[in-house]
Amino acid sequence: MTRAPLEPAKITHPKIAHPTSREIPVEPAHTALLFVDVQNYNCLPDGGEYAHLDARERDAQYGRFFETLRVTGIPNMAALQRAARRAGVEVLYTVIESLTADGRDRSLDYKITGFNVPKGSFDAKVIAELAPTVDEIVFPKTSSSVFISTNIDYVLRNLSVRYLIIAGCLTDQCVDSAVRDACDLGYLVTVPTDACVTLTAERQASSLANNRGYCRQVTTRALVAEIERLTPAPAHE
Predict the structure, then answer these.
(1) Which of 142, 184, 139, 181 is closest to 159 using CA atoms?
(2) Domain map of the chain by residue range?
(3) I want to staple 116 with a disulfide (CB 3.0 to 4.6 A). Which of 46, 103, 168, 212 is the partner?
(4) Are 31 and 164 in contact (CB under 8 A)?
């Protein structure tokens, strides 16, 4: 008896709903706030990045950066940090920091640039205004993007994070690199535009214009209000 040929199996794939826009609010329970390189090395006038400059040269080259950081950048980052902590949003940090004292583990790019923040040094610490609590995670990195030289993607997925708020400095360098890599890895990214700082107003505007296609951009005030509005009220005992 000749058997009839088997019909090819019909495979159906379930349709999975996914966001169709970047312009959607965060979900606090699945959100993390990441501060990029807000550390003593580059955010204090006496930080190691400026050790080769005298005071006049440092002020001429970086005075605008320090002023913007002091007047708007750090206060806005602190406001986001407070809102995130109240809402139970994970607060994370990345700092430029070698795994060794002499920096032999650094990326080639950092070696060429001359960046070396020795392991455990004062320069490697987050600035006092944004100091992490004992239970907040700090990722030491030796590349522009934290996603290249750390296990942050693994950690974020373990924390069930889908929404990532990225702030810090420099807007057009390490912040921008983190934004693009996070988007490519499947996170919905929000950038608070006035909680990111770079060296000039022109560089700030150019960077935000370039990464607008990768992320949602909002003001710190609007984002803090959003987090507060979406955070469930504590249950009454």
Answers:
(1) 139
(2) 32-230
(3) 103
(4) yes
58 torsion bin: left (phi>0), alpha (psi -120 to 50), beta (else): alpha
The secondary element (H helix, E strand) that includes residue 218 is strand 216-218
The CATH classification number of 32-230 equals 3.40.50.850
d(CA 160, CA 163): 9
**Helix, strand or coil for residue 196?**
strand
* Coil/strand/helix, residue 8: coil
Taking only the tens place, the pLDDT of each residue in 56-90 is: 999 999 999 999 999 999 999 999 999 999 999 99
pTM of the model: 0.91
Query: Which amino acid type is present at position 60?
Result: A
- Only one residue has tokens 């606090």, namely 28
